[in-house]
Amino acid sequence: MTQTSLSWRMATGVAATVLALYASPVMAGNEAEVAEHLIELVKIGRGVLSEQMKNINDPAKADKGFTGDYMSSQVVERFKKSTKLDLRIPNVVPQANLYLALVQAEKEVVDEAQPIINKPGISFKGFIPAVFARRVGEQFYKKSGVRMKLTGIDYRNANNKPDDFEAEVLRMFNDPRHPKGQSYVRNTMVDGKPVLRMMDPEYAGPTCLGCHGSPKGDRDVTGMKKEGWKEGELAGAISVVLPLK
Ligand code: HEC
Q1: Is residue 104 classed as helix, strand or coil in its secondary structure?
Q2: pLDDT band for position 3 (50/70/90)?
Q3: Sign of the torsion formed by the C-alpha atoms of 199, 145, 74 and 95
Q4: d(CA 106, CA 130)
Q5: Is 202 within 8 Å of 142 (Cβ atoms)?
Q6: Residues with CB under 6 A from ligand 1
Q7: How many Å is the Cα radius of gyration of the chain?
Q8: Cis ω for the linkage preceding 215 (within 30 of 0)
Q9: For a designed S-S bond to 204, which of 83, 125, 184, 235 qualifies (C-beta 3.0 to 4.6 A apart)?
Q10: Is pLDDT at 96 greater than 80 in this prediction?
Protein backbone atom coordinates (compact mmCIF):
# COMPACT_ATOMS: atom_id res chain seq x y z
CA MET A 1 0.00 0.00 0.00
CA THR A 2 1.29 3.47 -0.79
CA GLN A 3 1.91 6.07 1.85
CA THR A 4 -0.80 8.34 0.47
CA SER A 5 -3.56 5.81 0.83
CA LEU A 6 -2.30 4.96 4.31
CA SER A 7 -2.55 8.57 5.42
CA TRP A 8 -5.96 8.83 3.84
CA ARG A 9 -7.16 5.75 5.66
CA MET A 10 -5.80 7.01 8.92
CA ALA A 11 -7.30 10.45 8.51
CA THR A 12 -10.75 9.09 7.74
CA GLY A 13 -10.48 6.15 10.12
CA VAL A 14 -9.60 8.33 13.03
CA ALA A 15 -12.42 10.81 12.52
CA ALA A 16 -14.94 8.00 12.86
CA THR A 17 -13.08 6.55 15.81
CA VAL A 18 -13.32 9.34 18.27
CA LEU A 19 -17.11 9.23 18.35
CA ALA A 20 -17.28 5.44 18.38
CA LEU A 21 -14.92 5.25 21.31
CA TYR A 22 -16.86 7.24 23.82
CA ALA A 23 -19.87 5.07 23.13
CA SER A 24 -18.00 1.79 23.49
CA PRO A 25 -15.37 1.37 26.15
CA VAL A 26 -13.23 -1.71 25.81
CA MET A 27 -15.14 -5.00 26.15
CA ALA A 28 -14.32 -7.26 29.06
CA GLY A 29 -11.91 -10.08 28.35
CA ASN A 30 -9.18 -8.66 26.20
CA GLU A 31 -8.42 -5.43 28.04
CA ALA A 32 -4.97 -6.45 29.17
CA GLU A 33 -4.00 -7.23 25.60
CA VAL A 34 -5.38 -3.89 24.46
CA ALA A 35 -3.33 -2.08 27.13
CA GLU A 36 -0.23 -4.02 26.03
CA HIS A 37 -0.78 -2.99 22.45
CA LEU A 38 -1.17 0.66 23.43
CA ILE A 39 2.10 0.49 25.35
CA GLU A 40 3.76 -1.14 22.35
CA LEU A 41 2.57 1.67 20.08
CA VAL A 42 4.04 4.32 22.38
CA LYS A 43 7.33 2.44 22.66
CA ILE A 44 7.56 2.08 18.89
CA GLY A 45 6.92 5.80 18.40
CA ARG A 46 9.61 6.69 20.92
CA GLY A 47 11.98 4.32 19.14
CA VAL A 48 11.30 5.97 15.79
CA LEU A 49 11.99 9.36 17.37
CA SER A 50 15.19 8.13 19.07
CA GLU A 51 16.58 7.13 15.70
CA GLN A 52 15.95 10.68 14.47
CA MET A 53 17.67 12.54 17.32
CA LYS A 54 20.91 13.11 15.41
CA ASN A 55 19.02 14.27 12.34
CA ILE A 56 16.69 16.54 14.37
CA ASN A 57 19.58 18.12 16.29
CA ASP A 58 21.73 18.74 13.19
CA PRO A 59 22.30 22.54 13.16
CA ALA A 60 23.51 22.50 9.55
CA LYS A 61 20.21 21.29 8.15
CA ALA A 62 16.82 22.97 7.86
CA ASP A 63 14.27 20.50 6.45
CA LYS A 64 14.81 17.20 8.25
CA GLY A 65 12.25 15.20 6.27
CA PHE A 66 10.95 13.80 9.56
CA THR A 67 7.21 14.29 9.32
CA GLY A 68 4.08 13.09 11.08
CA ASP A 69 3.33 10.87 8.09
CA TYR A 70 6.73 9.26 8.41
CA MET A 71 6.09 8.65 12.09
CA SER A 72 2.65 7.13 11.56
CA SER A 73 3.68 4.89 8.67
CA GLN A 74 6.71 3.62 10.64
CA VAL A 75 4.60 2.96 13.73
CA VAL A 76 2.00 1.03 11.72
CA GLU A 77 4.69 -0.99 9.93
CA ARG A 78 6.66 -1.87 13.07
CA PHE A 79 3.48 -2.62 15.03
CA LYS A 80 2.58 -5.15 12.35
CA LYS A 81 6.02 -6.73 12.66
CA SER A 82 5.80 -7.07 16.41
CA THR A 83 2.12 -8.04 16.79
CA LYS A 84 1.04 -9.31 13.34
CA LEU A 85 -1.82 -6.80 13.54
CA ASP A 86 -2.12 -4.71 10.40
CA LEU A 87 -3.73 -1.35 11.16
CA ARG A 88 -3.93 -0.71 7.43
CA ILE A 89 -6.76 -3.26 7.44
CA PRO A 90 -8.56 -1.93 10.51
CA ASN A 91 -11.76 -3.94 10.08
CA VAL A 92 -9.94 -7.16 10.94
CA VAL A 93 -8.14 -5.77 14.00
CA PRO A 94 -10.16 -5.69 17.23
CA GLN A 95 -9.88 -2.19 18.78
CA ALA A 96 -8.21 -0.87 15.62
CA ASN A 97 -9.96 2.47 16.09
CA LEU A 98 -8.40 2.92 19.50
CA TYR A 99 -4.95 2.00 18.20
CA LEU A 100 -5.34 4.31 15.23
CA ALA A 101 -6.31 7.17 17.54
CA LEU A 102 -2.97 6.66 19.28
CA VAL A 103 -1.08 6.50 15.98
CA GLN A 104 -2.88 9.69 14.98
CA ALA A 105 -1.79 11.37 18.24
CA GLU A 106 1.82 10.36 17.48
CA LYS A 107 1.50 11.80 14.00
CA GLU A 108 0.04 15.06 15.29
CA VAL A 109 2.73 15.54 17.92
CA VAL A 110 5.44 15.23 15.25
CA ASP A 111 3.52 17.51 12.89
CA GLU A 112 3.14 20.15 15.61
CA ALA A 113 6.88 20.01 16.29
CA GLN A 114 7.83 20.71 12.66
CA PRO A 115 8.81 24.37 13.23
CA ILE A 116 11.38 23.44 15.89
CA ILE A 117 12.49 20.24 14.12
CA ASN A 118 13.23 22.15 10.93
CA LYS A 119 14.85 25.19 12.52
CA PRO A 120 18.41 25.57 11.23
CA GLY A 121 21.30 26.90 13.28
CA ILE A 122 20.52 25.26 16.63
CA SER A 123 21.62 21.81 17.69
CA PHE A 124 19.69 20.50 20.74
CA LYS A 125 15.99 21.24 20.26
CA GLY A 126 14.42 19.59 23.27
CA PHE A 127 12.12 17.39 21.19
CA ILE A 128 13.14 14.16 22.90
CA PRO A 129 11.34 10.83 23.37
CA ALA A 130 10.07 11.65 26.88
CA VAL A 131 8.56 14.95 25.72
CA PHE A 132 7.06 13.17 22.72
CA ALA A 133 5.53 10.51 25.00
CA ARG A 134 4.03 13.13 27.32
CA ARG A 135 2.45 15.09 24.47
CA VAL A 136 1.17 11.90 22.83
CA GLY A 137 -0.42 10.84 26.11
CA GLU A 138 -2.16 14.20 26.48
CA GLN A 139 -3.40 14.19 22.88
CA PHE A 140 -4.54 10.57 23.05
CA TYR A 141 -6.50 11.21 26.24
CA LYS A 142 -8.46 13.95 24.49
CA LYS A 143 -9.31 11.60 21.65
CA SER A 144 -10.07 8.45 23.61
CA GLY A 145 -10.50 9.00 27.34
CA VAL A 146 -7.66 6.52 27.86
CA ARG A 147 -4.86 7.85 30.05
CA MET A 148 -1.26 7.01 29.16
CA LYS A 149 1.84 8.49 30.65
CA LEU A 150 5.49 8.00 31.30
CA THR A 151 6.08 8.29 35.01
CA GLY A 152 8.88 7.80 37.47
CA ILE A 153 9.75 8.05 41.15
CA ASP A 154 12.11 11.01 40.71
CA TYR A 155 10.07 12.67 37.95
CA ARG A 156 11.22 15.82 36.17
CA ASN A 157 7.95 17.09 34.77
CA ALA A 158 5.04 17.64 37.16
CA ASN A 159 2.67 16.19 34.54
CA ASN A 160 4.53 12.89 34.85
CA LYS A 161 4.09 12.77 38.61
CA PRO A 162 2.91 9.32 39.73
CA ASP A 163 -0.49 9.11 41.42
CA ASP A 164 -0.83 6.94 44.54
CA PHE A 165 -1.39 3.76 42.56
CA GLU A 166 1.55 4.47 40.27
CA ALA A 167 3.84 5.38 43.16
CA GLU A 168 3.04 2.09 44.86
CA VAL A 169 3.68 0.03 41.72
CA LEU A 170 6.92 1.95 41.02
CA ARG A 171 8.10 1.07 44.54
CA MET A 172 7.29 -2.56 43.80
CA PHE A 173 9.20 -2.41 40.49
CA ASN A 174 12.12 -0.89 42.36
CA ASP A 175 12.27 -3.83 44.77
CA PRO A 176 15.08 -6.20 43.76
CA ARG A 177 12.68 -9.12 44.28
CA HIS A 178 10.46 -7.92 41.42
CA PRO A 179 11.22 -9.92 38.25
CA LYS A 180 12.88 -7.49 35.87
CA GLY A 181 10.67 -6.37 33.01
CA GLN A 182 7.47 -7.85 34.39
CA SER A 183 4.53 -5.50 33.99
CA TYR A 184 1.73 -5.03 36.52
CA VAL A 185 -1.97 -5.16 35.73
CA ARG A 186 -5.03 -4.69 37.89
CA ASN A 187 -8.75 -4.06 37.48
CA THR A 188 -9.75 -1.26 39.80
CA MET A 189 -11.86 1.89 40.04
CA VAL A 190 -10.93 5.45 39.15
CA ASP A 191 -13.44 8.22 39.91
CA GLY A 192 -16.07 5.57 40.65
CA LYS A 193 -15.69 3.88 37.25
CA PRO A 194 -14.14 0.51 36.44
CA VAL A 195 -10.79 0.66 34.71
CA LEU A 196 -7.92 -1.60 33.87
CA ARG A 197 -4.58 -0.24 34.97
CA MET A 198 -1.33 -1.51 33.53
CA MET A 199 2.23 -0.42 34.20
CA ASP A 200 5.26 -1.51 32.26
CA PRO A 201 8.66 -0.89 33.89
CA GLU A 202 11.59 0.70 32.06
CA TYR A 203 15.24 0.55 32.96
CA ALA A 204 18.11 2.92 32.40
CA GLY A 205 20.15 2.01 29.34
CA PRO A 206 23.49 3.58 28.34
CA THR A 207 21.78 6.18 26.12
CA CYS A 208 19.76 7.51 29.07
CA LEU A 209 22.72 8.26 31.30
CA GLY A 210 23.94 11.35 29.44
CA CYS A 211 20.89 13.10 30.92
CA HIS A 212 19.80 10.95 33.86
CA GLY A 213 23.18 9.53 34.98
CA SER A 214 26.12 10.79 37.02
CA PRO A 215 27.29 12.98 38.49
CA LYS A 216 23.98 13.48 40.26
CA GLY A 217 22.94 17.12 40.39
CA ASP A 218 25.04 18.21 37.39
CA ARG A 219 23.09 19.81 34.56
CA ASP A 220 22.30 17.77 31.45
CA VAL A 221 21.94 19.11 27.89
CA THR A 222 18.33 20.13 28.69
CA GLY A 223 19.53 22.22 31.65
CA MET A 224 17.94 19.90 34.23
CA LYS A 225 19.65 18.15 37.10
CA LYS A 226 20.84 14.60 36.52
CA GLU A 227 19.39 11.94 38.78
CA GLY A 228 22.52 9.81 39.13
CA TRP A 229 20.93 6.64 37.69
CA LYS A 230 23.16 3.65 37.02
CA GLU A 231 22.74 1.39 34.04
CA GLY A 232 20.06 -1.24 34.61
CA GLU A 233 18.30 0.67 37.40
CA LEU A 234 14.57 1.30 37.27
CA ALA A 235 14.00 4.48 35.25
CA GLY A 236 10.22 4.63 35.41
CA ALA A 237 7.20 3.07 33.77
CA ILE A 238 4.59 3.55 31.11
CA SER A 239 1.21 3.68 32.79
CA VAL A 240 -2.18 3.06 31.16
CA VAL A 241 -5.66 3.65 32.58
CA LEU A 242 -8.19 2.00 30.31
CA PRO A 243 -11.89 2.62 31.01
CA LEU A 244 -13.99 -0.58 30.96
CA LYS A 245 -17.61 -1.27 30.23
C1 HEC B 1 18.39 14.50 26.26
C2 HEC B 1 18.24 14.17 27.67
C3 HEC B 1 17.49 12.90 28.03
C4 HEC B 1 17.77 11.62 27.66
C5 HEC B 1 18.90 11.13 26.79
C6 HEC B 1 16.78 10.79 28.30
N7 HEC B 1 15.91 11.57 29.04
FE8 HEC B 1 14.40 10.89 30.18
N9 HEC B 1 13.77 12.80 30.45
C10 HEC B 1 14.43 13.93 30.01
C11 HEC B 1 13.60 15.09 30.25
C12 HEC B 1 13.95 16.51 29.91
C13 HEC B 1 12.41 14.62 30.82
C14 HEC B 1 11.17 15.41 31.20
C15 HEC B 1 10.25 15.29 29.97
C16 HEC B 1 8.95 16.01 30.09
O17 HEC B 1 8.97 17.25 30.03
O18 HEC B 1 7.92 15.34 30.23
C19 HEC B 1 12.56 13.17 30.95
C20 HEC B 1 11.60 12.34 31.50
C21 HEC B 1 11.75 10.99 31.66
C22 HEC B 1 10.78 10.13 32.32
C23 HEC B 1 9.41 10.54 32.89
C24 HEC B 1 9.47 10.96 34.31
C25 HEC B 1 10.00 12.36 34.47
O26 HEC B 1 11.19 12.45 34.86
O27 HEC B 1 9.29 13.35 34.22
C28 HEC B 1 11.29 8.87 32.27
C29 HEC B 1 10.66 7.60 32.85
C30 HEC B 1 12.53 8.94 31.56
N31 HEC B 1 12.80 10.24 31.22
C32 HEC B 1 13.31 7.85 31.27
C33 HEC B 1 14.37 7.90 30.36
C34 HEC B 1 14.99 6.71 29.82
C35 HEC B 1 14.62 5.28 30.18
C36 HEC B 1 15.93 7.15 28.93
C37 HEC B 1 16.82 6.31 28.04
C38 HEC B 1 16.15 5.35 27.18
C39 HEC B 1 15.89 8.61 28.93
N40 HEC B 1 14.93 9.01 29.81
C41 HEC B 1 16.72 9.41 28.19
C42 HEC B 1 15.67 13.94 29.45
C43 HEC B 1 16.30 12.85 28.88
Answers
A1: helix
A2: very low
A3: positive
A4: 13
A5: no
A6: 128, 130-131, 134, 150-152, 155-157, 160, 202, 204-205, 207-208, 210-212, 220-222, 224, 235-236
A7: 18
A8: yes
A9: 235
A10: yes
